Amino acid sequence: MIKRCIQCGQEKEHQAKGMCYSCYKKQWKPKLIICKNCKKEKKHHAFGLCSPCHMKLHHYDIIKSYNARKYHNISLDTYRKLATSCILCGFDKVIDLHHVDHDHKNNSEENLVPLCPNHHKMMHKAEYAATTEAELRKKLIERGGKSLF
Q1: Considering the entire predicted model, what is its pTM?
Q2: H or E stretch at 145
């Protein structure tokens, strides 16, 4: 519906409150709320949550699934089955999957081992790689698996 904008006076398509789209967008401000999850005053996104909390609570599985497919070419179920706790220290809050043979195209379950971020970083640093790799080899043999090194 073409009408005269009450803000700029131009004949444009009517948006809301008698204004064209660009004038309405300039004056519109999102509603501020106290987020139900983080308890901070932020812009409302959905379900009484701010945008980061909404993504974390309602779309986390989609994000995890995408990352599992992108970085390891495995399903989310396989990722969850493998990434339970660090094989070296038992840490279970944040888990990375490490390719034992360092071939990122080999995504078999035998080639992927769960490591905490610290041990994973140590595997890729030259000064710690030998000792961490020896530890990992020992743990894999204790588990009854064959060493892929």
Answers
A1: 0.57
A2: none
